[in-house]
Model the fold of this input.
Amino acid sequence: MIEATGVSKFYGARRALSDVSFSIAAGEVVGFLGLNGAGKTTVLKVLCGLLVPSSGKVTVDGVDGIEAPRELRKRIGFLPDRPPLFPEMTVRQMVAYAARLCGLPAERVDRRVAEVLELCGIAEVADDLIEWLSHGYRQRVGIAIAVAHEPKLVVLDEPISGLDPAQIVAMRGLIRGLKEKHTVLISSHILSEISHTCDRILVLHQGRMVAQGTEATLASGVSPLVEIVARGQLADVAKAELAHLEGVAELEAADAGDGLVRLRARLASDAARELFVATLVQRGFGVRTVGDVEAGLESVFLKLTKGAEA
Done:
């Protein structure tokens, strides 16, 4: 469905993207992650035919983005982080306008508008002015205008920004429902929503694609995090120089109360784990419990982008 091959982009002498390649299958919901300045917006603009890459190739549904940018844009629905809505229009008028603007034949507009109003859960406010709507409803209208012309690919930039918990749950269901007829690419800083919503994840760092796959696949490449509760004082942890042991990649310590300390260590191997626990015992810490902490998307993301500047 989407193929990006060797995409690079320079702004003068500054490199924004370097040899970015990835593919997305039809019907997938894919999350796009990266720190500020990683190049996410540049990739989205290239995908949508709004920016020509310095080198490389992008195709959507078989259409080359460089050779036929107009045809490419017909196949894409794009929702920026601030939906481009006209407050003086009603919801129905706004969706119909977007459908016509993006080339949907006139005889199909009314039927498509009715479908989109139901799909996005905004039929009940169809005849309300945009300016009357809450932020949550405006986000829904934004998605409605992105899908009004029946695009093959829907690109959503921060679709849940500013939503309350109830609206987030509803939006999550809406986005998942889009995959029945569309391929969806979501760019977001909210890791939990990427985790709950997406089939696969792409991670961009300093203009390069550093990882792609399911959350479980990405987590499998991260060293295990071990949590140990032991009797001892927090001040003694630093004195024991545990962070300098072989195989210890990361170490955090916290006071657990009642004379206990909680240690979280990222260890490179089973041998490093055994050495760490044995050293604790040798240095007078009474080990109470040892357990693994599941690697979540946050720890995976931080590992992949370690050393980046904020």
In short: The CA atoms of residues 219 and 296 lie 7 Å apart. Residues 106-119 form the longest helix (14 residues).
